[in-house]
Design brief:
Blueprint: H1 4-17, H2 22-36, H3 42-54, H4 59-98, H5 106-133, H6 138-156, H7 163-180, H8 184-187
């Protein structure tokens, strides 16, 4: 059985050494929880990512809470969540307390430029892993291609489109295909 200390320390390490928010952390969470510790499966990770994206709160914290809960119930959820939050809280507290002009320090500003690049790479890595784990069925592939195309068009045209609206459109399309195909037997094959 996984200990509360192990949950706390694992997510504290993730929270301490991952910059760039939840999307950048997805790859690190997957590495720690799926590949190294085997606390969850790749399918669980994909489901967590979708659910965490569509629920309130930061995606990485939602992932930590789910994994902690799956391992040790409410106490595990609290341990994992506090472990994920604590490093960021302490860093921000120290920066706000002692360094008023933190980003005006030249070497820190340059470090953050490098961190931006690393964050982009972590996000791409998480996306590639998710695509590789995606079922080789027509519907998920079509939704992936259409979503990517919509994202490119929205970015090029600088349109303001709610991510919630995009999630709802994808859900409606999937539900419509499910209904049209007559339920889970035929819909699962699409």
């Amino acid at each position: 059985m996984t200990s509360l200390t192990d949950l706390f320390l694992t997510f504290m390490r993730i929270g301490m050494f991952t910059f760039g928010g939840g999307y950048a952390m997805i790859s690190v969470v997957e590495n720690a929880c799926v590949e190294n510790r085997h606390w969850i499966t790749h399918d669980d990770m994909m489901n967590i990512t979708v659910i965490a994206e569509s629920t309130p709160g930061p995606i990485a914290i939602n992932c930590a809470t789910y994994v902690g809960y799956k391992q040790r119930g409410l106490a595990g959820a609290i341990a994992a969540t506090v472990g994920m939050i604590l490093p960021s809280f302490l860093v921000i507290y120290l920066i706000s307390r002692f360094l008023d002009d933190f980003l005006e320090i030249a070497w820190i500003a340059h470090a953050f430029q490098g961190i931006k690049l690393a964050v982009g790479i972590l996000i791409i890595d998480a996306g590639v892993k998710m695509v590789r784990q995606m079922p080789a069925k027509a519907l998920p592939r079509v939704i992936l291609v259409c979503s990517f195309a919509a994202m490119v068009v929205i970015e090029i045209l600088a349109l303001r489109v709610s991510s919630i609206a995009l999630l709802l459109v994808a859900a409606v399309v999937s539900l419509a295909v499910y209904v049209v195909c007559g339920g889970s037997d035929k819909g699962a094959a699409v």
